[in-house]
Specification:
The complex is a heterodimer of chains A (580) and B (346). Chain A has 17 helices and 21 strands. By secondary structure, chain A is of the alpha+beta class. In chain A, strands 5-4-1-2-3-7-6 form a 7-stranded antiparallel sheet. In chain A, strands 8-9-18-21-20-19 form a 6-stranded antiparallel barrel. A 4-stranded antiparallel sheet of chain A has the order 14-13-15-16, with helices on one face. The radius of gyration of chain B is 25 Å and the shape is globular. Classes of the chains: A alpha+beta (580), B alpha+beta (346).
Chain lengths: 580, 346
């Protein structure tokens, strides 16, 4: 059964025997004729075709190395690229040479696409078209960041659904569980030497140098033993690995895959003449074309002669084929990923940082609750003490009866004082939160300074305001109050940011390690705003109270100060709460 | 006078309209101007090519077939309404074997293999189910020039359900017109499974049959169609002739002497024992030997040339375990390989 296929392939490989009169070396040389599609002379015809799309194409670099191409899918720094080869620190280089640090915000593993975000605005997004509009045999150009395409070719097969579990060329499987790591002996445990791409190990986020402590609770000490144990599981089984990475211990639950066989014949032929991508299987829908795309040039847009993007080049899949994921498949994924519904695969190192942030936030909230509770208790105690003092005073007066001491009639003064104290606490709380918000502006200013985006974003501000008004209404706050109050907070914030910018400018400060506005600061700001809304709702019934008005001014004078907060900023922030 | 003049004009018009009709019905009879240029120079040129190729494809894809013979897969092309199929000799193999022919839409038909010239790798078979079938004409390969546009269609990696025949567009890079050993080289990429599939010119005619590949992406070799035309009757009769390209009796990797088979070809021009090819399905291939590896010693005996290698292997039997020392770039490798028995593929 195999024989004929075998002989067929042997023949193909051995073709040069036929031409003994010629030097064999001649066939192994790449001709350099101008009419070859890889030749610049030929590619020139496509200049006009990629003129626009190449403006929307970017170079993706991981840990400083070219990894893929990508395309702009939103003017505010949204970049689509190929997911499988992303790792480490990701940077995006635009056509004009500007390079930005990128955040990985979304992924679709199945289609192998990733969404990145850079802090840039005014970018030109690609123009998508349905891939089914391009017929078999039609020209396709793979845009790069240069004047001519990185490759050109024709549609070989129209967009099609791939059979499930289809491999590009047959790869034998054993019914043995497969994790996808190379191991070496570590400190008493197997240590990961290399994580193979597109394997369960890669998907779950195992990293080089991870120490595998235990498998399903059983301690692992030797690589061989671990491999044997893993092989006892079947493809599809989920195992629990206890892993030590630096100081952190993690529990990972990879789902095992089938163990691939070594390279077979088809594999060998398919690898002749061009480098293939790290992943060449498992794509649900593809457009097949005959452009010879380098793996490092995948992730970019592939366009028809009108310059419309019919898909994203996803892999160099074999000797005769490159694959693209069609535009109509990508587009719905974009919205999903932009909405944060498809965060990147578990990056354990990042996860622990995020976990830390989460834990810290919770701790902060708890401390604040405790503080509030303590303040309440303090107020109650003060009241009690005041009342008892009054009682003691009263007891000393001869006119008082003993009966009164036993069952004192409710006195009006102490409870009123207690009420005032409660109101004061509420006032303090609001002012303290206003201070928290303003204090964050130092970091916000730094982040914006680093990203060179110091202009206020009026649109975002308006949206935010609308959102806060809505949320306020839910807890009974009048729209006007919320609008006026937060507009004042935003104004004060902007004034404060500007004073920071002025300082940076004056001192010629260049920032490198500023916090990330989107990732680190906005969540904090949002949290403070939420708390402010809640506290405003509590304070509102007491706002006209002179005790509260006085307290607000006093508290603000002491708390809203320092770190660039001057009188003007303080007054602007406080203004909406003060009655005239 | 005026009458006769009018007639003349009418005649001319009629001639023109016939020509126009031919162009409209069969656009491939006159090539768009862009095909006279060395390279397309503008988007307009590219569009002209695109439009032309699309028209050709509508005609040639239905004539391209997938083939299954036993467990092996290949491609072919139907060249008459009765279902005569051109393919490669290494796909059709022996005459009178059962073949499954798979049309572009997945429809499966029965057929029998006919003859083949194993030396040039031309083969033929016939669909035995009743026709008529979509077909294409054979063209002329001797007219081809370097730089001519061409189109390869076939089933790379074998027929796959749900995948239409796969299209590649390219140029003729080289033509060897010898009748016994000629070939066409193009930059239409090929891979296993394409074997036997058609190479078309821009008239939509078959000019070659896919045969084999070399290392570079531009080394794709097709059997010239002229040999099919010249030997049509012999092929149709079921005659088999010529020495196989590889793995056969005389033209094959003969270097293992008697029956013992390693599965390599030594570069005859190299000063050392440098491997030119390794059959991936041989003891050598399975052991991981690669082209460009240099054999330094076998069983401790120094190997300085292909002659040394031949002499040592000639003394071995199938089943013998040999110890090889190999230089790969700057690395030295040692491996033990069990020789197999040379298969008779005829």
């Amino acid at each position: 059964m195999i024989l004929q296929r075998k002989s067929a392939i042997a023949l193909i490989l051995a073709g040069w025997l036929l031409a003994p009169a010629r030097s064999d070396a001649q066939f192994f040389k790449e001709p350099s004729a101008g009419y070859l599609r890889s030749n610049p002379t030929f590619l020139k015809a496509f200049k006009e075709v990629v003129a626009k799309p190449s403006e929307s194409t970017v170079r993706i670099q991981c840990d400083g190395k070219d990894t893929a191409l990508g395309m702009i899918v939103g003017p505010d720094g949204w970049i689509l690229t190929k997911a499988n080869d992303l790792r480490g620190d990701i940077a995006v280089k635009l056509r004009d040479g500007k390079t930005y640090d990128a955040r990985w915000v979304g992924v679709n593993q199945q289609h192998d696409v990733a969404l990145l975000k850079i802090e840039a605005t005014g970018l030109k997004p690609v123009d998508f078209t349905d891939s089914k509009k391009v017929a078999v045999g039609n020209w396709l150009a793979c845009a790069g960041i240069g004047e001519t395409p990185v490759a050109v070719g024709v549609v070989s097969v129209a967009t099609r659904a791939m059979p499930k579990n289809a491999m590009n060329f047959p790869i034998a499987n054993a019914k043995v569980g497969y994790l996808g790591v190379q191991l070496e002996p570590g400190d008493g445990h197997p240590r990961v030497q290399q994580v193979m791409p597109d394997t369960p190990a890669a998907k779950i986020g195992l990293k080089d140098k991870d120490l595998i402590l235990a498998l399903n609770g059983a301690t692992m000490s030797e690589p061989d033993g671990f491999i044997k144990e893993i092989a006892k599981f079947k493809p599809g089984d989920v195992v629990t690995l206890k892993v030590r990475r630096g100081d952190v211990e993690l529990d990972l639950k990879p789902k095992l895959d089938r163990r691939p066989a070594g390279m077979n014949r088809g594999d060998l032929q398919n690898r002749m003449g061009s480098e293939l991508s790290s992943r060449i299987s498992g794509y649900p829908t593809i457009l097949q074309h005959d452009s010879v795309v380098k793996p490092v040039d995948c992730g970019g847009p592939i366009v028809d002669l009108e310059g419309r993007v019919v898909g994203i080049n996803i892999c160099r899949a074999g000797r005769v084929e490159s694959w693209a994921v069609p535009a109509e498949v990508i587009q719905p994924l974009l919205f999903e990923m932009m909405a944060g519904k498809a965060p990147p695969r578990i990056e354990v190192a990042k996860l622990t940082l995020e976990q830390q942030l989460d834990a810290s936030r919770k701790a902060l909230k708890k401390a604040e609750d405790e503080k509030a509770a303590a303040e309440k208790k303090l107020a109650v105690l003060k009241t009690t003490v005041a009342k008892l003092e009054a009682d003691v005073q009263a007891a000393k007066k001869p006119a008082e009866t003993t009966a009164n001491t036993k069952t004192p009639t409710p006195a009006t003064n102490p409870p009123a004082r207690a009420k005032d104290d409660d109101a004061r606490i509420l006032a303090d709380k609001v002012v303290d939160l206003m201070q928290q918000r303003l204090k964050l502006m130092k970091d916000v200013a730094a982040a914006k300074w680093q990203a060179k985006q110091t202009d206020p974003d009026a649109k975002r501000e308006a949206e935010l305001l609308d959102q806060l008004v809505k949320q306020g209404e839910k807890i009974g706050l009048p729209a006007d109050m919320v609008r006026v109050f937060f507009s004042a907070q935003f104004d004060a914030a902007k004034q404060l940011q500007q004073s920071h910018f002025d300082r940076f400018k004056q001192d010629k400060i260049e920032l490198k390690n500023a916090l990330d506005l989107q990732k680190d600061l906005r969540p904090k700001l949002d949290q403070v705003s939420q708390d402010l809304l809640a506290e405003l709702a509590k304070l509102r019934p007491h706002l006209a109270d002179p005790v509260v008005q006085k307290r607000l001014r006093e508290r603000a004078a002491t708390v809203l100060s320092g770190e660039g907060i001057n009188d003007a900023i303080r007054n602007r922030a406080l203004e909406p709460l003060i009655k005239r | 006078m005026s009458f006769s003049r009018r007639l003349a004009v009418y005649t001319l018009l009629a001639v023109f309209s016939v020509a126009a009709l031919v162009r409209a019905d069969d656009p491939a009879t006159v090539l768009p101007q862009v095909f006279d240029k060395a390279v397309p120079e503008s988007v307009k040129d590219l569009k002209e090519i695109e439009a032309h190729v699309k028209k050709l494809l509508d005609k040639v894809i239905p004539a391209t077939v997938g083939l299954r013979i036993g467990g092996s897969s290949g491609s072919g092309v139907i060249i008459d309404k009765d279902g005569t199929v051109l393919t490669a000799a290494h796909v059709s193999g022996k005459p009178d074997q059962d073949v499954q022919i798979i049309l572009h839409d997945g429809k499966k038909l029965k057929g029998k293999t006919l003859g083949g010239n194993r030396g040039i790798d031309s083969g033929m078979l016939k669909i035995t189910d009743p026709g008529p079938f979509p077909f294409v004409d054979m063209g002329t390969s001797s007219d081809l020039k370097k730089g001519n546009w061409c189109m390869a269609i076939g089933h790379p990696n074998g027929f796959q359900t749900g995948r239409a025949p796969v299209v590649r567009l390219g140029r003729i890079l080289e033509i060897d017109k010898r009748t016994d050993k000629g070939f066409i080289r193009s930059d239409c990429t090929l891979v296993g499974g394409d074997s036997g599939g058609p190479l078309f010119d821009m008239y939509g005619k078959v000019i070659g049959i896919h045969s084999r590949i070399g290392g570079p992406i531009t080394a794709n070799i097709h059997v010239p169609v002229d040999t099919f035309v010249e030997t049509f009757d012999r092929l149709a009769k079921g005659e088999i002739w010529g020495d196989a390209l590889f793995g056969g009796k005389k033209g094959g990797p003969k270097k293992t002497g008697g029956d013992a088979y390693l599965g390599i070809k030594v570069d005859p021009n190299a000063k050392d024992c440098r491997l030119q090819f390794v059959n991936p399905d041989s003891p050598a291939g399975r052991a991981g030997l690669m082209a460009d590896d240099v054999i330094i010693s076998i069983d401790g005996k120094k190997i300085a040339s292909s002659v040394d290698f031949d002499n040592v292997l000639r003394g071995k039997q199938p089943g013998n375990l040999i110890a090889l020392e190999v230089r790969r770039g700057e690395d030295h490798l040692s491996m033990k390989i069990t020789l197999s028995k040379r298969a008779d593929k005829s």
